[in-house]
Amino acid sequence: MDRLDELLTAGTPLLSRVDEVLSTIGAPGGHDVWRELRRIRLLPGDAARAVAALRPTAILEAGPELRADARAYADLADALPLAGDWSGEAADAYETARRSTAERLNGGPDSLGRRMEATADLADALAGWMLRARGELTSTLAEVMLSAEAITLLGGDHPPADSAAAAAAIGARLLHTIAGSYDEAEDLLADSAGLQNPLPV
């Protein structure tokens, strides 16, 4: 359990109250929280829990294995024996097959080795993104838990308009932070779209 998990546990009553107020009372017209809700399409508490569910450790552990596999493909491509003393059509056919196999193992960007290396790069980038997303949410959550709006929402009876304004303010700050992280993740996935293409035959 890290700092975000601890804050999320401690902040559960506040996040539940924010979600409840936004769901039942709403938010002031034109408030920034409406834009953020349209971007994320989750209530602040649900969005915060989604970020907290990100676990970069498993992905970080996969990186070295993927790079080891990429090296194995490269070693295998280098180990394919040459035709040697052969000559004639059989030797030519073998050499063509050897080169084709080596190219598929570790040649161009669509070879198995290069794709494995690119997948390892993506894993490292995603793990870094998860760590940043969790860290940024930790900071924002710590701030809103100590805010005047949190006191308004948890400190007793207040007029609905005050509660709605407080929930909207907290919700907007949390969702804005999370939306920035989501945008970064979309950019990472877009940059790696080539990995989704099937290997050429």
DSSP E strands, number: 0
Mean pLDDT: 91
In percent terms, what proportion of residues is strand?
under 5%
Measured distance between first and last alpha carbons: 46 Å
Structure description:
With 201 residues, the protein is mostly helical. The chain has one domain (3-196). Helices cover 77% and strands 0% of the residues. It is built from nine helices and no strands. It has helices at 3-10, 12-24, 32-40, 44-52, 56-79, 89-106, 112-145, 148-154, 160-191. Helix 4 (44-52) runs parallel beside helix 9 and helix 5 packs antiparallel against helix 6 (89-106). It is elongated. The two termini are 46 Å apart. The relative contact order is 0.18.
Search tags:
single chain; 201 residues; mainly alpha; 77% helix; 0% strand
Task: Provide the fold topology.
Layout: H1 3-10, H2 12-24, H3 32-40, H4 44-52, H5 56-79, H6 89-106, H7 112-145, H8 148-154, H9 160-191
In short:
With 201 residues, the chain is mainly alpha-helical. The protein has helices at residues 3-10, 12-24, 32-40, 44-52, 56-79, 89-106, 112-145, 148-154, 160-191. Helix content is 77%, strand content 0%.
